[in-house]
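Reviewers of the previous submission asked for a worked example of the structure-prediction workflow described in the proposal, so we include one complete record here. The input consisted solely of the amino acid sequence. No template or homolog information was supplied to the procedure at any stage.
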Amino acid sequence: MPQTRDGSFSTDIFERYRRSEQAFVVGLMEMVVNGVSTRKVTRITEGLCGTSFSKSTVSRLTKALDEPVAGFLNRRLDAAYPFIIVDALFTKVRTDKSVVSKALLIASGIRADGYRGILGLSIGDSESFATWNEFFRGLKARGLHGVDVAVSDNHSGLREAIAKQFVGATWQRCQFHVMKNLLDHAPKKERENVTAAARLIFLATDRKEAERRYAEFMARFAETAPKSCVCLEGAFEDMFAILPLPEKYRRRLRTSNMQERQSPYN
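From that input alone, the workflow returned the following structure tokens.
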């Protein structure tokens, strides 16, 4: 690098190239984070730059993500989170040179001031009570407290872990999962009608209105979609734990769609 004898001058041309290289490396990392395999990354870089990075080089570069990810997952949760939303997504994970399906446990939280964010992530073999219980224990060890309402699907192990780790918290059954169950049990010709009628129940503004619409649903589909009626009957009480809350809270807490983002009635 050219410079004067006393060190008062130094060219900045190398620094500019170094910044460009850093941006390129960040681009490689983002590709991997978004699910592009290391093998495909090598082909992409060859097409863009006329040269390729080996799979091992890409893997080495992405290891730079380990420290910030670990910092995020282990950060302190000092503020109270009255509302938490939990769910699991199944994703492919490479272990011992093979790709297997794993449960990605996700917990999101909403503070009293309306701030929303991901509290924690964890990879587990399944959605068992033991897996969820350990996950919640880890969140509490990092400072999670003040939980008043927990929103999730009806997985028995998950419900049991919520009841054990967040004693006194109200459980809200995810209405999106209830809708999926209703449609799974409805005849194909009635699915559109079941969806419309169920949506009216879910959007009721008070208990009395919800019960009236529920009675109408049961009467209407008793003969044409009896299994959907049975499903709704078992879920009704747990779907409306949030009704006493103001509307601005209910809208965010009806479902676990902060994780899934695919509700048919949002």
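The longest helix spans residues 13-33. We consider this example representative of the routine output the project will generate in years two and three.
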